[in-house]
Amino acid sequence: MHVPDGFLDAPTSVATGVIAAGGIALALRGARRELDDRTAPMAGLVATFVFAAQMVNFPVGAGTSGHLLGGALAAVLVGPWTGTLCLSVVLGVQALLMADGGITAIGTNITLMGLVGVWVGWFVFRGVAAVLPKRPASVPPAAAAGALLSVPVAALVFTALFAIGGTVPVAVGDVALAMVTWHTVIGVGEAVVTALVVAAVVAVRPDLVYGARKVLPVRELEIRDTPSVRPGAAA
Question: Which CATH number goes with the domain that contains 115?
C-alpha cells in the first residue's frame, strides 16, 4: 500500500501530511502511558518485524503495491499509540533510505498504515475481545479479527483519497476494485500472521502483550514470615 510520489495531488498530500503530523504528536504523548522499562524493548522488536514484513511487496495495480501492514499486530503487542510511532518510523525509513513509498507521500502512507491501520485494528480488537471470554487465549483471535478488517479499511480510505486528489488517469472504480480485492486477500494472510505471532508471545510472556493486560489474572503479593534463627542454634 505504499503510495508513490505524484500519485495524489499536492493539496491532498499536504492534508494527509498534516493529519499524520498531528497523529504522531498525539502518539508521542500517548506512548508514555503504554511503555515502561519492560515493554520498551518490545517496541523496537515490533518495528523491526514490521519493517521486514513490509519489505515483501507485490504489485496491486495502478502503480501501487501490496504487503502486510502490521498495524493491528503493533497495536495489540505494544499499544495503539506506540504502534503508531512504530509504523511511522518504519515508513519514514523505508521512504528515505529504501525508496519504498514516495517522500512527498510519507504523510499519506503514515495516515493509511500508521493511523487507519493501527487504530481500526485496535478498535476491532477491543470490540471482539469484549465478547470473548476474559482469558489470554482470547487475545490471538481478537487480534486476528483486527488485522483482517484493518487492511481493507485502509484500502478503502486510500480509494477515497484517490477519488479526491488522484492524478493518475485510472478510473476510481478500477482502483477500488483492485485495492479492496487484493487487500482483502492480504487481510486474511495478515490475520493468520498476527494470530500466530501474538499467540507465541502470549504463550511465553503474556505480561509483555499490551492487549492482554486486562485479561491477565491479578496476583496478590504474599509476604511470608520466616522463622528467626538464634545465633549458635543448630541448623
Answer: 1.10.1760.20
